[in-house]
């Protein structure tokens, strides 16, 4: 058994939950990634797309920072390190789908489907995790470079 936590919840509705629906104490405990990690409960995190936009690095950023739209940290004690958030969106998600023998990590015998980022997510400040650019992807052993972004004039 494991849990699949809605990390984006904090950013999109955390302020409202704190102020109106569940109160400060419960709002700070919502989507308790750190508690799951510390108690050994397998977990993954998700965006609940299409309820919030699909963006794995944004979802990881939400679990790392727990920032609300107003900039409040909602439940600092439930923040997780970047490495744990990356695991939650990759191998954690694969485990949730019972596909961790096929996907979710780069290992012999698994599908070679993954993205390549422009920067090391563990070397940038956690606040920048959501802004990392994808250089390209590898799917089925084939490399696909992302198109260059055209500057807006």
What's the alpha carbon Rg, rounded to whole Å?
Answer: 16 Å
**Poorly predicted spans:** none
- Given the helix and strand composition, which structural class is it? alpha+beta
The rough form would be described as globular
Q: Mean of the pLDDT scores?
A: 93
Trace the largest sheet across and list its strands.
Answer: 3-4-5
Beta strands, count: 5
SSE order, one letter for each helix or strand? EHHHEHHHEEE
Annotate the secondary structure layout.
Layout: E1 3-5, H1 9-21, H2 23-29, H3 33-39, E2 43-45, H4 56-65, H5 82-89, H6 91-96, E3 114-117, E4 134-139, E5 142-145
Helix pairs in contact: 1-2, 4-5
Structure overview:
The chain contains six helices and five strands, in the order βαααβαααβββ. By secondary structure, it is of the alpha+beta class. Helices cover 33% and strands 13% of the residues. It has a domain at 3-106. Strands 3-4-5 form a three-stranded antiparallel sheet, with no helix packed on it. Strands 1-2 form a two-stranded parallel ribbon. The longest helix has 13 residues, at 9-21. The mean pLDDT is 93. A hairpin with a 2-residue loop joins strand 4 and strand 5 (142-145). Helix 4 (56-65) packs across helix 5.
Keywords:
globular; alpha+beta; 153 residues; 6 helices; three-stranded antiparallel β-sheet; single chain; two-stranded parallel sheet
Short description:
It contains six helices and five strands. It is of the alpha+beta class and 153 residues long.
């Amino acid at each position: 058994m494991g849990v699949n936590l809605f990390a984006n919840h904090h950013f999109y509705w955390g302020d409202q939950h704190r102020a109106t629906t569940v109160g400060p104490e419960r709002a700070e405990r919502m989507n308790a990634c750190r508690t799951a990690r510390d108690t050994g409960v397998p977990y993954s995190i998700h965006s609940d797309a299409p309820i919030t936009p699909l963006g794995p690095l944004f979802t990881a950023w939400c679990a790392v920072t727990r920032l609300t739209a107003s900039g409040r940290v909602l439940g600092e004690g439930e923040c997780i390190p970047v490495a744990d958030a990356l695991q939650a969106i990759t191998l954690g998600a694969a485990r949730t789908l019972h596909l961790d023998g096929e996907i979710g990590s780069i290992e012999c015998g698994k599908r070679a489907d993954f993205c390549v980022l422009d920067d090391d997510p563990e070397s940038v400040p956690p606040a920048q995790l959501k802004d990392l650019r994808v250089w390209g992807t590898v799917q089925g052993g084939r490399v696909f470079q992302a198109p260059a972004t055209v500057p807006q004039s």
